Amino acid sequence: MIKLNVAVLILGSAVLAASPVFAFEKAGCGAGDCRDCHALSKEDAAAILKDKVDKVLDVKRSEVPGLWDVEAVYDGQKVPLYMDFSKKYLISGSVIKLANNEDLSEQKFVSMNKVDVSRISLEDAIVIGKADAPGKIIVFDDPECSFCKKLHPEMKKVVAKHPELAFFIKLFPLPAHKGAPAKAKAIACIKSKGDNSKAEAMLADALNGKPLPEADCDTDQIDKNIALARELHIGTTPTLIMPDGRVLPGFKEADKIVAALKEQ
Description:
By secondary structure, this protein is α+β, with helices and mostly antiparallel strands. The protein has helices spanning about 40-50, 105-110, 145-160, 180-190, 195-205, 220-230, 255-260, and strands at about 5-10, 55-60, 65-75, 75-85, 90, 95, 100-105, 125-130, 135-140, 165-170, 240, 245-250.
């Protein structure tokens, strides 16, 4: 799950209480949708948040009563924020819809940060499923990642039931896993020779803690994958990239992966 830091920032002075008599007015907040009495333009939001975000992209009415959805850029990444109608409070964090336990903030974050899948070369990718399957899911994977180990049988379950789908694994060793770069390079060398089955078997061995032979080629493919992940703001494994460019970090069960595809 994507985690956002929770912060409530006081942006101004206290709001004055309205007189009760206004509740009986025929033309006013009490007569219709209270949101009709409030406005927040993109320019207004940019002025209010000028010292807190890099850029304001859009402002919309939130489905949460009393809040505006503010789409912004912070530290080079798009983030969903919420501002109240008084324009005195900014909220950054998970907003949960209690009726179905949906994380509205996470869904918004994912939709805002789609990547251009055409930028991702699949020539070096280890394929689970049919390489010519129309539905291609890209996975950034670390050969020493315990959650990647859990994901692999789930991917096989998906392709067994849905032959129109395939997973393309990009090897992405994390700095915390000291042996991962050498293992990733060894697997990349085998894949570069066109032996997908052997490369997949070696990856499975690595995920199960088995030793791998040293790389028998000189390749910079792993360095390229690491650089690409950095450009795409990917920092964890496994990370799935759906065909429409949505980035879903973390382990997912087979049925959750298929369900996510239907949300496109």
